[in-house]
Amino acid sequence: MNVTISKIKKSDPKKDYDWSEVKKDLVLQWYSFVVRRISVYWTWVFARTPITPNQLTIAGALLALVGCALFATGNYVYGIAGAILIHIFAILDHCDGTLARIKGMSSAVGNFLDEITSHVVTPLIFVAIGYGTNQLLLGSIAAVFISLLNITPLVRDTPFHKRWGKK
């Protein structure tokens, strides 16, 4: 597949971000200025392979789960390795959507898989860190709050809700 870096950059909808809000949010700054820029080049590589966007999503989720397991050990070096894997998950999470647009493989199932993965991994990170620091209760409480913040878009935006949820 003949895909250029500029085509990948153009396929990434920048309208997803309110740039005035990005300036206020450190996480969005990291995502916007680091993850997105790295993911362009990774997507360029993946576009030349038979890898599908759903395979990227699953690979990223598996890496994130390994990262969570490393956090849960409570070991400093393993925690660093876990953080690296979580960042690779973030990059792959951005690559899968871009790859789907580039290859014309966007689907409701892929979108749902991507959403579920993000909404499962994020709370698990907090639980794993809590477990690794002997603060499992605190990590679990944080995971519950993160899940509650994320559950509304998860339910509202699924293809299943769009089909059966609205009357």
Order of helices and strands: HHHHHHHH
Strand element count = 0
Low-pLDDT residue spans: 153-167
Helix content: over 70%
Q: Pairing-aware structural class of the strands and helices?
A: mainly alpha
How many helical stretches? 8
Rg calc: 17 Å
CATH H-level homologous superfamily name: CDP-alcohol phosphotransferase transmembrane (TM) domain
Strand content: under 5%
The CATH topology turns out to be Four Helix Bundle (Hemerythrin (Met), subunit A)
Q: Would you state the CATH class? A: Mainly Alpha
Second rung of CATH, namely the architecture: Up-down Bundle
Number of self-contained structural domains: 1
The end-to-end span amounts to 42 Å
Overall 3D shape = globular
Task: Specify the biggest β-sheet.
Answer: none
Overall pLDDT level: 81
Write the layout of secondary structure elements.
Blueprint lengths: L4 H7 L7 H4 L3 H21 L6 H20 L3 H28 L4 H25 L3 H21 L2 H7 L2
Helix pairs in contact: 3-5, 4-5, 4-6, 6-7
Briefly summarize what is shown.
The chain is mainly α and 167 residues long. It has helices spanning 5-11, 19-22, 26-46, 53-72, 76-103, 108-132, 136-156, 159-165. The chain has a single domain (5-121), classed as Four Helix Bundle (Hemerythrin (Met), subunit A).
